[in-house]
Design a protein that fits this description.
It is a single chain. With 258 residues, the protein is an alpha/beta fold. It is 38% helix and 24% strand. The protein contains ten helices and ten strands. The chain has helices spanning 44-51, 74-80, 97-104, 113-118, 121-140, 156-168, 186-202, 214-220, 238-242, 245-252, and strands spanning 4-15, 18-29, 33-37, 59-64, 67-68, 82-84, 174-178, 206-210, 223-228, 231-236. A six-stranded mixed beta sheet has the order 6-7-8-3-9-10, sandwiched between helices. Strands 2-1-4-5 form a four-stranded antiparallel beta sheet, covered by helices on one side. A hairpin with a 2-residue loop joins strand 1 (4-15) and strand 2. Helix 3 (97-104) packs parallel to helix 6. The longest helix is centred in the middle third of the chain and has 20 residues, at 121-140. 34% of the residues are buried. The model has no long low-confidence stretch (mean pLDDT 88).
Amino acid sequence: MSNYIVSFNDVSMYFGGIKAVDSLSFSVEKDRIFGIIGPNGAGKTTVFNVLSGMYIPSGGEVYYREKVINQLPPHEVTAAGIARTFQNIRLFEQQSVLDNLKVARYSQIQYKLWDVFLDTRKKNKEEKAITADCIGVLDYLGLADKADVKTGSLPYGEQRRVEIARALSCKPEVLLLDEPAAGMNPAEIDALNELIVNIRKHFSLTILLVEHQMRLVMEISDEIMVMNFGKKMALGDPASIRNNDDVLEAYLGRVNTK
């Protein structure tokens, strides 16, 4: 059996005449941190939108655990084991931190509508377990004392952590982090580096990371894919990417002269 947990096979995503993703193929091994970088408009977030079920690709196949998931809606993708964060924080600001996490679990609940109306033991038992799981995630991320606080009142860096906690509360096998360091200061980025490495180990995750903070990507990624104009420009470990002439030219307008 293949050790790849996520694969794109010749995947394209077109918006009219715009090729946001163009015949893209790559595979991600289980338990790895896989960085995706590239200039603005390269197609990085589109890859996440296709993988998470927000877009149905124009062509090709998306595999999760060797099963094609092209047609699955987002809630079924999440229930299958793929959770994500977003570039722009998408939390329910007037709801508590704990409620933000619990909402994310409802695509996976086993009790039915009549269990809610009848307030059955099955429903109460599952709700209790969900609450305990979510508090456990908050505790690991240092947010347990904020469980009852309205999310919108938290500082920006803590809101970013809540969004990661919400994704983790879904008990994923694959976590998609879309620019998690956006808007953070250097100290917060250092803390985020450590957090991502730790949650990969603690929760036994495979992590796909889209990020513009090169220091973060280079320090924690096992493998990096560089995209440009919807295509794969380069793929390799951080050292090979750092010294790739095509990558240097795309980012800096120059080639490596070493």
